[in-house]
Design a protein that fits this description.
With 58 residues, the protein is mainly alpha-helical. Helices cover 33% and strands 0% of the residues. The radius of gyration is 14 Å and the shape is elongated.
Length: 58
Amino acid sequence: MLVEGANHYTISDPFDPTTARPFLDFPATQPEDEICSLMAEIIGLFIDAHVRQKSIAL
């Protein structure tokens, strides 16, 4: 999934500097709390649709 304004580290909370790679990524261009909420909702819908077989989630 592509989320405009997010980067690879948007989903990690708290930020994990031990990957030693954040300098390779672009900065997020949208408020990260809003993007995290959107990503959580999308992941939940994916689980509902494909694991719980809820067609409404599609």
